[in-house]
C-alpha cells in the first residue's frame, strides 16, 4: 500500500519506529541470507487464511513504558517469580535477578558456557563469535517449595554438547553443587547457527524445551544440512521436546509425544519436530495449546501446536510451501529424508502442520500488519484474563485470548487472535507508538505488568546501550491531567501584553473541570484568572511566574509554570551565511558567516558580550543533545568535548573526578597534566575507561565501563583535556569570519552558535539570546525525508538507512525548505538501477510541490552512473529556499515487475 497524503501521520509513526530497526539479525541467521536483499513481492501459492485485521478498543495512552534496568550483558530470556522479581539469564552465563521494589539487579550465579565457534564465522560480531552460550531458563512449577530452576545452555567444554540442567536456588545464590543434568546431546560448533532456547511448563508439569536446528544453509555439507537435525526423528535438535522432570533429577516421557517409547530410530522426547530456530514458547492456559515464534531462512513463522506433530522444516515453510529442491520430489503425504546424515526414520510423519501466520522481507497481502524489511520472529505470552484475577494492574479483558508476539528486528509487539480451532483469526499492532530495539523476551508478571527484555541490536556486544529491561503498566482508572503553560512572549518592555495559553494541556479522560492561573511577582499582589487562555497586561517591570493549575472531575491536579520578564526586551541574534548555501556544507569549503546582533534597550552593543562558536559534529553523535549542552558551554570547548561533557555526567564520572580538586579519584586537571603529550594517549586512556583500572592513582579502583564505545571515550578525553584550559583560552570567533569544513566531513553537521547578553534595564537583569544553526550533509537518506507518497518502506540489514520502493505509477519523496543556491545537480542512490535499462521509469525534480515547477527531468535509464555508484541528474540554477520533491513516474507500472530501491539523494554544487 502506498503512503500517500492520507496515511502521513501513520508514516511518521513508522518513521520513528523503523529508524531504530536498521540492523542485522545478529546470531539468528546466516551471512548469505543476511546479505541478500529480496526485492520481489511475496505471493502465497496456497490457500491463504481469511485475514481480518481489527483494532482492540483500548486507549494506548493508558499504557506507561518504564525503563527499570539497564547495563545488562546480552540478556537472553527471563522468568518472573510470584513475588514479582524478574530472573533472567545472559548469554555469557550470568544468572541475574531484578527486584521491582528496590530496582536493583543482583547476580546469583555465573555458569561457565561456551562462547566461540571453531570457524571464523560471525554475523556481525568479532571473529569466532558464537551463538553458543546460555539459551534459556524456567522455574519449576513448585519453585516456591523446592527452589528448582532449569537451564538450557552449551557448557564450557572441549566436546560440542548442550545440556538441560537443574539447579537449586538457595538464599541469594544458586547452589552450584546441586547440579542435575537431565539431558545431554551432541551439537556442532564449527559454524553458525540456531540454538532455540524457549522453555515452559504445561499444566500437567511437563517441561517443553525449544531447540534450534544447529545448522547452516548448505544442504550439501554436514553442518548445513538440517535434514540431519530438524528432519531427523532420532535427533533432539530442530525440535520442541516434552518431558516430565522427576524429583531425583531424572525424567519420564508423557503420553502423546510424537513417537511412542521404544519406536526404533526415534527420540521419544520429541513433541514437535521440523522446526528451524524456535524461540519463546507460550501456553494458552485455557486450551493447553503451545505457541512459539520461529526464525526462518527468509520467511518467519508464528506457530501453534494443538498436539504433537511435524512442522515441516526443512522440507516446508509457511503454509506448507516446499523449501528444498531435492530428488526424489516429495509432497505433504510422503516426505522422504534421504540425507546421508540422517540417523532416523527415512519416511517422516505426514502431513506436516502449516504455520499459523508467516511473513518475509516484503509486504504480504496475506499478513500485511508485520510490514516489510529484515525480520526475526520471537513470540511472546498468550494472554488470558482469568490468569490475573486479583492482579494490581491487569491488562483489560479486550486482550483476552490474544497472543502477544514480537520481532527482534522490527521492534513491534503484535496481537494474534485464533478461533476455537486454533486457526488464524486476526492480527493488530499493540501500542503502535511504542518502539523497542532488539526484544529477546516478553512476559507478564503476577501484578499484570508486561516486561520487555531487550538484547539490543549490537550483536555479541557486552553491555550494549540497548540491553535493557522495560515494564509496561496499564492504568484502568482516572488519569491525572498534564498541564502545559505557555505564552506568546517570555520577555519585553513594559507595558507588556502577554497572551497566556493552556494549549498542549492533556487530559485523556476529558474531564478537566477548572483552569486556574496565578500571575505573581515578589512584592506585588498575585493576580488570579479562571480562564483557559487569559490575556494579561503587565504594567510594572519585574520577574513574573504564571502558574497554571488544572483540576479534573476526580480532583486530580497538575501544575505548570511559565516565567515572564517584564521591562527588558531579549536581544535579537541572527547568523547569516554569505555567498554560500544555507542548508548544506561541502567538505573542504570555507564557510563565510556574519552575526547580526540587535537590542532594544542597548544603544551600543557591548562587543565583549558577543560569543561566536563553530565546529563540526561528527556522525554518531546526536545533534539535539549537542544543542542542549552547547547553550551553556564555553566557546573554547570543541563539539567532541561538549559531547564528552554530557557523557561524563551521564556515566556519573563526576562522583569520583572534579575539575581541579581530588575526590575519590584524580582531578581532570591532574589527568590532563599527566598525559598531555603522551603518545597514543587516546588509545591508552580509552582502555582504562572501558576496562577499568587500579593502582594508577592510588588504591582506589576505577570500575570498568564496558558500555562506553571508543568513539565516546575519545569525546570524554577531549573534554578532560579541553576543560582544564585557563581563561586565556576562552576566546570567541570573530563576529564575522570564515570557518573551514573538515576535508573528511561526512554525515555529521557544521554547527554555529552566536550569543549576546544585554546590559539589562534598570532593576531587570540581563537577558542572553542564543542562536544555534547547523548545515547538514548534502547526502540525505530516505530515513530523513519530510514527506512521501506511494512509496513503501523497506528496512535492509546491517544498520543501513531505510530505503523506499515506488509503489504506484507516480511516487515521490519530499524535503522541506532546501536552499538550492549553487546546487547544479542531484545524484540519486538507487539500488537496482542497472536493471531498468528497458523500463519507462522517469524522474523529475520539482519545487514547491510534487506537481510544481520542474527544475530537472530524465528517464532513469538515461542517467550516467558515477564512480560512487550514484546516477547524476543536472538541474536548472535556482536561488533560495524551496520545498524539493523527487518524483518517480512509470505509465506501465506493474507491482509484479522488477523493482528498484531509492536509498538516498545527494545535492551537488
A few lines on this structure:
The chain contains 8 helices and 59 strands. The chain is mainly beta.
Question: What can you tell me about this protein's structure?
Answer:
8% of the residues lie in helices and 36% in strands. The chain has 909 residues and is mainly beta. The chain has 4 domains: 8-474, Neuraminidase (6 Propeller); 486-566, Immunoglobulin-like (Sandwich), CATH 2.60.40.10; 581-777, Orthogonal Bundle (Cytochrome Bc1 Complex, Chain D, domain 2); 779-908, Sandwich (Jelly Rolls). The strands form 16 sheets. Strands 10, 11, 12, 13, 14 and 18 form a 6-stranded mixed β-sheet that branches. Helix 4 (623-630) crosses helix 5. Residues 1-55 have low confidence and may be disordered.
Please name the CATH architecture of the largest domain: 6 Propeller
Arithmetic mean of pLDDT: 88
First-last Cα distance: 36 Å
Structural class label? mainly beta
Largest sheet: 6 strands, mixed
Number of strands: 59
Secondary structure: helix percent:
under 10%
What is the count of DSSP helices, taking H or I runs of 4+ residues? Answer: 8
| CATH topology description of the largest domain | Neuraminidase
